Amino acid sequence: MTDSTPDTGTGAEAGTEADAEAGVRRRGRTGADAVIRRRVRYGEVLGEPRFRVMFVSHTLFVVAESLRVTTFSVLVYAATGSPLWSAVAFAAGFLPHLPGSMLLGSLADRLPPRALLAGGYLLGASGALLIALVHLPVGAGLLVVVVVSLPGPVFNGASGRLVAQFLEGDAYVLGRSLNNIAGSAAQLAGLALGGTIVAVLGTRQALVAAAVLHLSAAAVVRLGLPRLPAPPVAPADTAVVRASLAGNLRLLRLRPVRLLLLAQWLPSSFTGGAEGLIVAYAGQRHFLAGTYAVLMAALPVGMLAGDLVVGRLLAPRTREQLVLPLITLMGLAVLGFALEPGRAPATVLLLLAGCGFAYQLGLQRPFLESLPPELHGQAFGLLGSGIMTLQGVAPVVLAATATAAGLATGTAMGLTGALTLAAAVWIATCRPRPTSAATTAGR
């Protein structure tokens, strides 16, 4: 770094000042590194009241979305009898996220977050109610899901930015872990709730329940989150679409950001694609009615267990060292579906694959530190939209490939495991070295 201050002293004095400045830098690096290396407990993270509000609302949202996605997929499968259309229904809420992020992502760093998040939950409630109360054709129902999902990256980006704002160091990583754990538990609750409501009352009543949960999440945010101002970033005269495209382009031009995005997108999305075929797999294997819910529950159970162990018991640096082994575990588990396992082995494989999702915890700190601060919201929206889009595309492509080639659904699912292993090899060769907080502090 070049010092622009004029040299008005002797060489010895200048040397002394330089040594002092270097000492300050070293102490700053040491302090920042201590923040990263210090083990944080979940109780400390939940002690932040603003994060607690985000945690509760996020949990309600995931229950609602799990209930809506699976119920709508079952509704479409019942109406068409087609695994392909069932996969399309599963994917309909994912695919719009990429264009939403590309065109609207900058709003996550522009608008007041409380109103933005509450509005997003209200929009989700409106879509679920419309499908539940109006008997729409399959195509029209899919269109409603697409429209409601389009601005999703804006809401997700704003939520991610707030978590990064409220928590720092290893507390941020554990905050993400808590959201993952809550997401897994909420997905299980959504599946259980959905199965019960569908069995007792029907699919449309399950969609009404999803709308009620969305409304509850909106109320939690509106009443519990303080009124925070919009971030003072992009100029007011810059168009939203233009700013969103420019921000995404800037993020993708940064090699560490680009590689860390792909490392989080690819393995989880391939496995998520296999998840989208579980309903069809259970049907083709003639499992007992309701078995699909057991299989779909196995993946989030594994995710919950993996996040608890990796987040709670392992040191920050150990988490980062386990990224590749956990991705490999995920890929091998899903690859096992090529053998057409029965219900019990399939459940075990999905549990192991879910545990592998904990690899993402080892990438959270390096990813956050690679981001320009003024683009935090947009970056988190881009991260989520990439995962959602790939998870939406994968089951459709796999189902179409299986149908065209006459492949069994299990074989198609096994292909995603092979792709996950290929992604692990790529990450091993291209993964950037994690940027330490110490280096960042010294800049």
How many angstroms does the end-to-end distance come to? Answer: 8 Å
Number of helices in the DSSP assignment? 21
The topology string of helices and strands comes to HHHHHHHHHHHHHHHHHHHHH
State the low-pLDDT regions, or none. 1-36, 434-443
Shape by Cα distribution: globular
Strand content: under 5%
Number of strands: 0
Instruction: Using the CA coordinates, give the radius of gyration.
Output: 23 Å
Class inferred from helices and paired strands: mainly alpha
Helical coverage, percent range: over 70%
Can you summarize the main beta sheet? none
Summed over residues and divided by their number, the pLDDT gives a mean of 81
Quick structural gist:
The chain crosses the membrane at residues 84-104, 116-134, 140-158, 178-200, 206-225, 259-283, 289-310, 322-339, 345-363, 375-398, 404-428. The protein is mostly helical.
Could you please describe the fold and organization of this structure?
This protein has 443 residues and is mainly alpha-helical. It has 21 helices and no strands. The protein has helices spanning 11-37, 42-46, 49-80, 83-91, 97-104, 113-133, 138-149, 152-166, 170-200, 203-224, 240-253, 255-275, 278-284, 291-313, 316-321, 323-335, 343-356, 361-369, 376-405, 409-430, 437-442. The radius of gyration is 23 Å and the shape is globular.
Write the layout of secondary structure elements.
Layout: H1 11-37, H2 42-46, H3 49-80, H4 83-91, H5 97-104, H6 113-133, H7 138-149, H8 152-166, H9 170-200, H10 203-224, H11 240-253, H12 255-275, H13 278-284, H14 291-313, H15 316-321, H16 323-335, H17 343-356, H18 361-369, H19 376-405, H20 409-430, H21 437-442
Helix pairs in contact: 3-4, 3-9, 3-10, 4-19, 5-11, 5-19, 6-7, 6-8, 6-10, 8-19, 9-10, 9-14, 9-18, 12-19, 12-20, 13-14, 14-17, 16-17, 16-20, 19-20
Keywords: Cell membrane, Membrane, Transmembrane, Transmembrane helix
Transmembrane segments: 84-104, 116-134, 140-158, 178-200, 206-225, 259-283, 289-310, 322-339, 345-363, 375-398, 404-428
InterPro entries: MFS (IPR011701), MFS_trans_sf (IPR036259)
